[in-house]
Amino acid sequence: MNMLLSEEQRDALQELMNISMGQAANSLARLIGAKITLSIPKISDVTPEQFCTMLSDETVWYTRQSFLGTIKGEVIATLSKQGCDAIGQLMDYELPLTQDSLNELLLELANILAGACLTGFAEQLALNAKLSMPTMYSASNQHYHYRWASTLMMEVEFKVEVSQFDSKIVICLEENSVQTLLAKLQLLLE
Fold first, then answer.
1. What distance in Å separates the CA atoms of residue 153 and residue 139, rounded to the nearest whole number?
2. pTM > 0.90
3. CATH of the domain at 129
4. Is the pLDDT of residue 149 over 70?
5. What is the pLDDT of residues 75-100, one digit of tens each?
6. Angle between helices 7-32 and 175-189 (to 10 degrees)
7. Is 2 inside any structural domain?
8. Which of 8, 20, 76, 146 is geometrically suited to a Cys-Cys bond with 170, CB 3.0 to 4.6 A?
9. Count of structural domains within the chain
Protein backbone atom coordinates (compact mmCIF):
# COMPACT_ATOMS: atom_id res chain seq x y z
CA MET A 1 0.00 0.00 0.00
CA ASN A 2 1.34 3.39 -0.89
CA MET A 3 0.55 5.96 1.78
CA LEU A 4 2.51 8.86 0.44
CA LEU A 5 1.44 11.98 2.26
CA SER A 6 1.47 15.30 0.53
CA GLU A 7 3.95 17.76 2.01
CA GLU A 8 1.03 19.73 3.45
CA GLN A 9 -0.49 16.61 5.06
CA ARG A 10 2.89 15.55 6.49
CA ASP A 11 3.46 19.03 7.96
CA ALA A 12 -0.02 19.07 9.51
CA LEU A 13 0.42 15.58 10.93
CA GLN A 14 3.84 16.46 12.37
CA GLU A 15 2.39 19.54 14.04
CA LEU A 16 -0.50 17.53 15.53
CA MET A 17 1.96 14.92 16.76
CA ASN A 18 4.21 17.63 18.18
CA ILE A 19 1.32 19.04 20.23
CA SER A 20 0.20 15.64 21.55
CA MET A 21 3.77 14.52 22.32
CA GLY A 22 4.34 17.82 24.13
CA GLN A 23 1.32 17.03 26.31
CA ALA A 24 2.82 13.63 27.08
CA ALA A 25 6.18 15.17 27.98
CA ASN A 26 4.45 17.70 30.21
CA SER A 27 2.55 14.92 32.03
CA LEU A 28 5.77 13.05 32.75
CA ALA A 29 7.72 16.20 33.66
CA ARG A 30 5.10 17.16 36.26
CA LEU A 31 5.13 13.65 37.71
CA ILE A 32 8.91 13.42 38.11
CA GLY A 33 9.78 17.10 38.50
CA ALA A 34 12.39 17.02 35.73
CA LYS A 35 12.81 18.59 32.30
CA ILE A 36 11.92 16.42 29.30
CA THR A 37 13.18 17.12 25.78
CA LEU A 38 11.49 15.83 22.63
CA SER A 39 12.67 14.94 19.17
CA ILE A 40 10.85 16.17 16.09
CA PRO A 41 8.10 13.66 15.27
CA LYS A 42 9.12 11.20 12.57
CA ILE A 43 6.45 9.88 10.20
CA SER A 44 7.11 6.92 7.93
CA ASP A 45 5.42 4.14 5.99
CA VAL A 46 6.70 0.74 7.14
CA THR A 47 6.11 -2.94 6.48
CA PRO A 48 5.91 -5.47 9.33
CA GLU A 49 9.43 -6.64 8.42
CA GLN A 50 10.80 -3.10 8.75
CA PHE A 51 8.86 -2.66 11.97
CA CYS A 52 10.36 -5.85 13.46
CA THR A 53 13.86 -4.72 12.47
CA MET A 54 13.26 -1.45 14.28
CA LEU A 55 12.33 -3.44 17.39
CA SER A 56 15.58 -5.38 17.67
CA ASP A 57 17.47 -3.05 20.02
CA GLU A 58 18.61 -5.00 23.08
CA THR A 59 19.43 -1.86 25.09
CA VAL A 60 15.74 -1.09 25.62
CA TRP A 61 12.59 -2.65 27.01
CA TYR A 62 9.39 -2.65 24.98
CA THR A 63 5.77 -2.25 25.97
CA ARG A 64 2.81 -2.66 23.70
CA GLN A 65 -0.72 -1.24 23.90
CA SER A 66 -3.45 -1.73 21.36
CA PHE A 67 -6.19 0.80 20.77
CA LEU A 68 -9.64 0.58 19.23
CA GLY A 69 -12.23 3.11 18.12
CA THR A 70 -12.50 5.31 15.04
CA ILE A 71 -8.85 4.47 14.52
CA LYS A 72 -7.14 1.21 15.41
CA GLY A 73 -3.56 0.23 15.92
CA GLU A 74 -0.85 -0.16 18.50
CA VAL A 75 1.38 2.05 20.56
CA ILE A 76 4.85 0.67 21.19
CA ALA A 77 7.03 2.28 23.83
CA THR A 78 10.76 1.68 23.95
CA LEU A 79 12.24 2.44 27.36
CA SER A 80 15.99 2.57 27.86
CA LYS A 81 17.56 0.16 30.30
CA GLN A 82 19.98 2.89 31.31
CA GLY A 83 18.68 5.45 33.78
CA CYS A 84 15.77 3.41 35.14
CA ASP A 85 16.99 3.67 38.73
CA ALA A 86 17.11 7.47 38.44
CA ILE A 87 13.56 7.59 37.06
CA GLY A 88 12.41 5.10 39.70
CA GLN A 89 13.85 7.32 42.42
CA LEU A 90 12.13 10.39 40.93
CA MET A 91 8.86 8.45 40.97
CA ASP A 92 9.36 7.37 44.61
CA TYR A 93 10.14 3.72 43.92
CA GLU A 94 12.31 1.95 46.48
CA LEU A 95 15.83 1.30 45.23
CA PRO A 96 17.33 -0.97 44.13
CA LEU A 97 14.46 -1.85 41.81
CA THR A 98 13.32 -5.45 41.97
CA GLN A 99 12.17 -7.09 38.73
CA ASP A 100 8.53 -6.59 39.79
CA SER A 101 9.01 -2.93 40.65
CA LEU A 102 10.99 -2.39 37.43
CA ASN A 103 8.15 -3.88 35.37
CA GLU A 104 5.63 -1.75 37.27
CA LEU A 105 7.73 1.37 36.64
CA LEU A 106 8.10 0.62 32.91
CA LEU A 107 4.39 -0.06 32.48
CA GLU A 108 3.49 3.10 34.39
CA LEU A 109 5.84 5.23 32.28
CA ALA A 110 4.57 3.68 29.04
CA ASN A 111 0.96 4.24 30.04
CA ILE A 112 1.56 7.90 30.94
CA LEU A 113 3.39 8.67 27.69
CA ALA A 114 1.28 6.55 25.33
CA GLY A 115 -1.99 7.66 26.91
CA ALA A 116 -1.19 11.35 26.66
CA CYS A 117 0.19 10.99 23.11
CA LEU A 118 -2.75 9.04 21.72
CA THR A 119 -5.40 11.04 23.57
CA GLY A 120 -3.96 14.37 22.44
CA PHE A 121 -3.60 13.19 18.87
CA ALA A 122 -7.12 11.70 18.67
CA GLU A 123 -8.77 14.71 20.33
CA GLN A 124 -7.19 17.16 17.89
CA LEU A 125 -8.70 15.26 14.96
CA ALA A 126 -12.03 14.43 16.69
CA LEU A 127 -11.22 10.72 16.54
CA ASN A 128 -12.15 8.11 19.10
CA ALA A 129 -9.41 5.78 20.38
CA LYS A 130 -9.56 3.70 23.56
CA LEU A 131 -6.15 2.51 24.73
CA SER A 132 -5.69 -0.85 26.45
CA MET A 133 -3.37 -1.35 29.40
CA PRO A 134 0.29 -1.82 28.47
CA THR A 135 2.05 -5.15 28.56
CA MET A 136 5.73 -5.94 28.38
CA TYR A 137 6.63 -6.96 24.86
CA SER A 138 9.44 -9.10 23.55
CA ALA A 139 10.24 -8.11 19.99
CA SER A 140 10.90 -10.85 17.47
CA ASN A 141 11.16 -11.14 13.73
CA GLN A 142 7.88 -13.04 13.58
CA HIS A 143 5.76 -10.47 11.79
CA TYR A 144 2.93 -12.81 10.79
CA HIS A 145 0.76 -11.73 13.72
CA TYR A 146 0.53 -8.10 12.62
CA ARG A 147 -2.81 -7.29 11.02
CA TRP A 148 -1.38 -5.02 8.36
CA ALA A 149 0.79 -5.25 5.28
CA SER A 150 2.01 -1.69 5.59
CA THR A 151 1.26 1.05 8.07
CA LEU A 152 1.84 4.65 8.92
CA MET A 153 4.22 4.91 11.85
CA MET A 154 4.57 8.08 13.92
CA GLU A 155 7.34 8.25 16.51
CA VAL A 156 8.96 10.70 18.88
CA GLU A 157 11.76 10.35 21.41
CA PHE A 158 11.59 11.63 25.00
CA LYS A 159 14.78 12.30 26.98
CA VAL A 160 14.87 12.96 30.72
CA GLU A 161 17.68 15.44 31.26
CA VAL A 162 18.54 14.56 34.89
CA SER A 163 19.23 10.94 34.00
CA GLN A 164 20.36 9.02 30.98
CA PHE A 165 16.85 7.66 30.52
CA ASP A 166 15.04 8.02 27.24
CA SER A 167 11.93 6.60 25.70
CA LYS A 168 10.41 6.45 22.25
CA ILE A 169 6.68 6.30 21.59
CA VAL A 170 5.66 4.76 18.28
CA ILE A 171 2.03 4.93 17.14
CA CYS A 172 1.19 2.43 14.40
CA LEU A 173 -2.09 2.74 12.54
CA GLU A 174 -3.78 -0.12 10.73
CA GLU A 175 -4.38 0.34 7.02
CA ASN A 176 -8.08 1.32 7.29
CA SER A 177 -7.26 3.75 10.09
CA VAL A 178 -4.68 5.45 7.89
CA GLN A 179 -7.43 6.22 5.39
CA THR A 180 -9.59 7.62 8.21
CA LEU A 181 -6.66 9.75 9.37
CA LEU A 182 -5.97 11.06 5.87
CA ALA A 183 -9.63 12.03 5.44
CA LYS A 184 -9.59 13.91 8.76
CA LEU A 185 -6.33 15.62 7.84
CA GLN A 186 -7.76 16.72 4.52
CA LEU A 187 -10.82 18.25 6.27
CA LEU A 188 -8.47 20.10 8.60
CA LEU A 189 -6.48 21.49 5.69
CA GLU A 190 -9.48 22.71 3.68
1. 16
2. no
3. 3.40.1550.10
4. no
5. 889 999 988 998 999 999 999 999 99
6. 100
7. no
8. 76
9. 1
